[in-house]
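Subject: design request, 365 residues
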């Protein structure tokens, strides 16, 4: 499946530093000058989930395999990007391919690090980026609607629906509102999601603060949080620089360092989880002596499609799923206990998999 979050923001705000920390590699060059990233970098990260270790411990699994999601380090966007300024349109295309946006805003003061606008103002910065994405959407909507004209004359139903949705997005954008503010019905949802507009994508603001404020944030991050709340978006406060340092340490050292900073967990773990939630993703588990493994599904996925995440044959030949809720599995100390307590359910094709379910699929090929 591969869910992707694009790391977006002005140049030099700490996107690559964050990406490096996330992927624990130095693959993305982080350097103190604008436009140092030219190729987008895609990095896979494990989704931290303490439940997986508990399941593995109870079942004596030899290995634990977390589920993964991807982050894409995208080059900095500047004012005028939608008109090809800076590195322009190519990077808007990189954003288009992502499922959601992690919008990094500079919330740290540091005279040595150049700000493209020469001052620190994360709320204004966020608006600069949002405006560019809105301009780009308006442009692509105009092109697409022009292309639909001929089909509309031929009374093409699908074209009609598409044009109607594009018109509604256009109206919102012309009134300075992003496409994600448009309300769509359940019936329209599928077509709507296929429009792939930039300002349709769910967004999470990442406030990059200085080391001293990693735990509590600062006045800048508070201003961003307020703006985000007004949009119904989430915020994560992080110090990308510290996260990068932490990512170089082994786990004991990292824990000590985090404690010194007054943090309970790495900001990255919070960020990954927030992204996972933003994308409406959930996890189910498969557990055995060889491995305990986490799998990603979107909320509301039925059992056969959930099985299909493991292998297409599991979906095609799906018979039923033996299912134990996570809490039951833990309370009964494992599969045998859960079975004896009558907590193992046989679920059929219409069962909607719940977050934390421990599943065993029966299928024929
Ligand atoms: N929280 C922070 N405090 C202080 N300095 C930071 C912080 N986060 C990042 N930096 C510094 O800011 C500079 C720019 O970082 P980085 O290269 O990650 O930016 P970028 O957003 O990827 O830029 P570009 O758009 O040019 O690719 C680097 O020198 C980095 O060390
Ligand atoms: Mg960069």
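Subject: RE: design request

Done. Sequence follows.
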């Amino acid at each position: 499946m591969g869910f992707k979050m694009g790391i977006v923001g002005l140049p030099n705000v700490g996107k690559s530093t964050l990406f490096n920390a996330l992927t624990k590699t130095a693959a993305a060059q982080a350097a103190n000058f604008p436009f140092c990233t030219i190729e987008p970098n895609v990095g896979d990260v494990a989704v931290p989930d303490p439940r997986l270790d508990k399941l593995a411990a109870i079942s004596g699994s030899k290995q634990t395999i977390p589920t993964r999601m991807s982050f894409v380090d995208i080059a900095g966007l500047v004012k005028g990007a939608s008109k090809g300024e800076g590195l322009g349109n190519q990077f808007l295309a990189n954003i288009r391919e992502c499922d959601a946006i992690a919008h990094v805003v500079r919330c740290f003061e540091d005279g040595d690090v150049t700000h493209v606008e020469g001052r620190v103002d994360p709320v204004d910065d966020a608006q600069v980026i949002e405006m560019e994405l809105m301009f780009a959407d308006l442009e692509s909507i105009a092109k697409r609607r022009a292309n639909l004209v001929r089909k509309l004359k031929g009374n093409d139903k699908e074209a009609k629906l598409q044009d109607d949705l594009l018109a509604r997005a256009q109206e919102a954008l012309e009134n300075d509102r992003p496409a994600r503010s448009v309300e769509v019905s359940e019936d329209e949802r599928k077509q709507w999601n296929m429009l792939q507009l930039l300002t349709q994508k769910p967004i999470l603001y990442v406030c990059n603060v200085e080391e001293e404020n990693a735990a509590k944030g600062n006045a800048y991050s508070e201003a961003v949080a307020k703006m985000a709340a007004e949009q119904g978006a989430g915020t994560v406060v992080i110090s990308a620089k510290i996260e990068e340092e932490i990512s170089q340490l082994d786990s004991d050292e990292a824990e000590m360092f985090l404690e010194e900073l007054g943090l309970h967990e790495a900001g990255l773990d919070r960020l990954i989880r927030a992204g996972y939630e933003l994308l409406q993703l959930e996890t189910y588990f498969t557990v055995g002596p060889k491995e305990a493994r986490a799998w990603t599904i979107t909320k509301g996925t039925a059992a056969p499609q959930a099985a299909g995440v493991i292998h297409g044959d599991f979906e095609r030949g799906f018979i039923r799923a033996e299912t134990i809720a996570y809490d039951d599995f833990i309370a009964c100390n494992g599969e045998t206990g859960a079975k004896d307590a009558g907590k193992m359910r046989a679920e059929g094709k219409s069962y909607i998999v719940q977050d934390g379910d421990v599943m065993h699929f029966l299928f024929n090929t």
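The radius of gyration is 23 Å.
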